[in-house]
């Protein structure tokens, strides 16, 4: 067939100038340390792969490292398949093999050996991120993932993880997908909606070619010595309607058949016509190969066909010459386009399809019976109606997924098992496997995959289906962990108590039941009839758990129980002795190699130091936790995420606001909203109204949040302060009421001190007599925050005491009292490290001193508060300080020209924007970093250009640097 034109990646690239420019520009930006993600969308056959091939050539010529992986439509397959493709190619390259060996977290993606134990998916995510970070330190890396519409859930989650962590790597991540295949309920659809909201991710739509572009393409194919009958180009262009692949197929069909009327008009029929033009042996090859998927090893293909070697070689030559399939190495044959494989498979007769699936299942089992091929075998066995064998293979595939760090795939395979279970006789079920055990494993997988409601349903079914006490104990403990994650602590306590009645003494199952019950007990502590906290059950459970852990040599469980003991009473983890015990637990966890327990210990060290007002120590342990998460790849674990929140709050208190916002911007998917809620203190203190709208959207009036009470505490507190700065006492009190209801209980009152102090500030500013009764109630709420300072339960850390002092000071503005003394006491109380709150109180003191005629003291307080507020960009406070300075004629904070020469015409917020402009960030990226809208960012940039007289963003930054404003 010498007249048939070239196809696929060798087809000339026609049009696509803008789209290719967008891709090459992304690579150029990455060269300068500005990474990005691009979602390439287009219908089947429109030319996505051809465009990516052109990018490959361009980027490789510029020295970039190209990594490509493919998703396939074949059952559930291997988890992380496209990443296995991309990284596996590196693992066989001597230049990178040593690097990959130094990152053990990615071993499940490159090793042929199955991991000995369960792998944490967050470790895999972190390992891939670290690999890309290291690779992109020396050269730009372009990671291409094709056909995302077929991606497994683990791959989709990993893609989201990577795109949410684009910072300064020299990295471009591109994912292509068929637009027409992503229907309304497709699992990729929701992910795409989340990804395009990320600041460094954009969608690139690939439209159909125009008629002139199609003609250019077809004429280019003519230059290869092939030409359709005279005058048919217009008909091809009209019929193809801009689809490049369809046009190529029509072109080839017109070459092969001089009668245009004989050419089918539908793409599917057209593709089948192409296959039917093959000789009989070649058609058999194509039909057999279609059952294997887009690609098939030569060895498997040969084994499914009763052809001699010579006949098979002739058939493969015919297949290749007609451009139906191709092979680069003779070892693996691939359909030129997925549409060809789909058409060939759809055309199989039912019996033929069943026989071929059965043959592939048998061949895979003979060639590689390991769990690595189990998913493929399960698929082929199911399609060949061998349900019993498919069930067994699905169990193997679930185990492979567990040891590959792919809980979502594990859940899918186990649910396949459960679906088949009821349709099979007991004799066909593997010996030793029970329905209750499969349900328990599925519940654990759902928990690890973040599907908590599903985990509860499966856990409840597992308990019901358990046929012996040991199985029931395991199921109860698993479900209790899920319930505690959902804050259903009372139900968890009931379950673990029941598990203890069934667990045999001195067994590991009893040990885990004790450890889990101890946590449930601590979470459900209550005041006894004597008015004191009842620690009887907690002491007994913790003591027995520690003793059994030591007797069984389980240092990891011992460490875990020590943490439970320390968190049972806040005073313990706040004290130096408690911190010492936690550091001992950290050594135990490290010696046992239990990263999950180690993270829990570090979190408690960080929060204990935070509660004790030791903010520098809290920052130290937060950094330890962040390093641990990065090293282990467990950045998305709950404790790693909570440690990040502590770090953000500590940086906020210490006045390191830009660092706090950087931690917010770096937050992974699981904590993105929680981190932003903690970081909202900074945005509110800088006067950003956009963030107030965002908080209000997350904390609606009906009280639904979908998150932890801490989201309400931080977001609600920020909104009370926002209302106070605006002088809106009504809104401040409304936010107080809603936040108190969401974050306080009879057992958990300490947030009341903060909330009441902030609300009292707002209503004291309002000054209306109607607020007096409410003020009396609010100060009582603050005073009662320590009502549970009973026995061993203490909540009188320095932060709570400081907020109580501030509440008393603000209350004195309404009810009377020694205001100066009370505000001085509040100022001293926040001296443990909250510099912003001290600056606010210094403003109050300056006002009181000025009113009392103590102008020198007023000026001193004003200058100190202004110095801090100016250093962090606290715009509302700066306005109040300037107003007071003018009203009281203190002349303490007269504006001075910038040290570089000309007076700085820019506001603090404009300087924040200009710093990001100087870093090369776009308006969209500036908006995401500063919690403002893209429109607001654009307005700031326009104001900067006008004030500096610059003609461009770059020139404005240069002027600011020369003038000393940056």
Automatic annotation (TrEMBL):
Keywords: ATP-binding, Nucleotide-binding. GO terms for molecular function: adenylate cyclase activity; ATP binding; DNA binding. It holds the Pfam family GerE. The keyword Nucleotide-binding applies. Signal peptide: none annotated. One of its GO terms (biological process) is regulation of DNA-templated transcription. This is AAA family ATPase. It comes from Epidermidibacterium keratini. The lineage of its organism: Bacteria, Bacillati, Actinomycetota, Actinomycetes, Sporichthyales.
